[in-house]
Amino acid sequence: MTSTPLFDTYLERVMSKNTVKPSGNSRVPAFNQPQSPDDLPRAAGFCTMMRLPSQETTKGLDVGFIGVPFDLGCGFKNGPRMAPRAVRVQSAALKALNASTGAAPFESLQVADVGDVRLNQYNAATACEDIRRYYSNIECTPLTIGGDHTITYPILQALKAKHGPMGLIQIDAHRDTSDSIAGDRINHSTAIRRAFDEGCIVPEKTVQIGIRGAGFSMDNIQWGIDQGFRVVRAEECWYKSLTPLMEEVRAMMGDVPVYMDFDIDALDPSYAPGAGTLEIGGLTTIQALEVIRGCRGLNIIGAGIVEVSPPYDNHDMTSMVAAHLLFEMLCVLPGVKYYTV
Fold this sequence. Notes:
The chain is 28% helix and 18% strand. By secondary structure, the protein is of the alpha/beta class.
């Protein structure tokens, strides 16, 4: 591999374990680091996100990876409850430096895996309350490994209590603004509607990217637009870079708190077959990177991936993609150090 100034500088820090000298002759790490394969093979050890240290609480952290193993809100194929574990397994291949953007999150933020939310697996309403209560008590920026899309509703409830109404960047094939499905008002098709009803999101600072597929009525399709959402259909994204779109989104959001909500079915099934509700004609992984990297500079207060369904995956492709996208989300959080590429 050809050496570059970026890698030389970063490797020098990593080889020194990024240490500080607090007192005497002892040296301790300044920030948690993903475990190096020089120390332990990637296939070995306890399974945590990016092989980071784990801890039971978020105390002392800037960022925490949180698993939410829930899929009672699925209307077709269950399986997302298995995603937190599967994504963590695939994340073992990730590295600490984003060589494409120069982001070095582990030189500037204290990050750990804080495990999974303990929630009721048999009752959706009770589980949502478990999730809301958990996120209300965290002391860091959450990066969530879902779980079906229902979980976004209680997460936004908790974040609203801390930050007030927020902007929402939803990358998704579906609007998820149905009022109810079969009389049930809490499921993965109603999460954004419930968040809107409770004032969690600012309508004119809500953008839905990648929307496509069929619907049951034009009323449901039009509802978000009528509230002030910006809806970017997948057809508007075909054959295009989404960098110009994200310039508009950054201007739209300004300095309000922003939550980034990535439903894996926003991607075309050729990139992410392990999802419960597949829709053809979706975004590419390149466009996904453009969207996430385009969020750099925003006041992001949380982000997450939902709807990964390992039982329907092909050679762990979808879990692998989700792991990479979560790392990209980490890299655009406020306070991340960047090297010049």
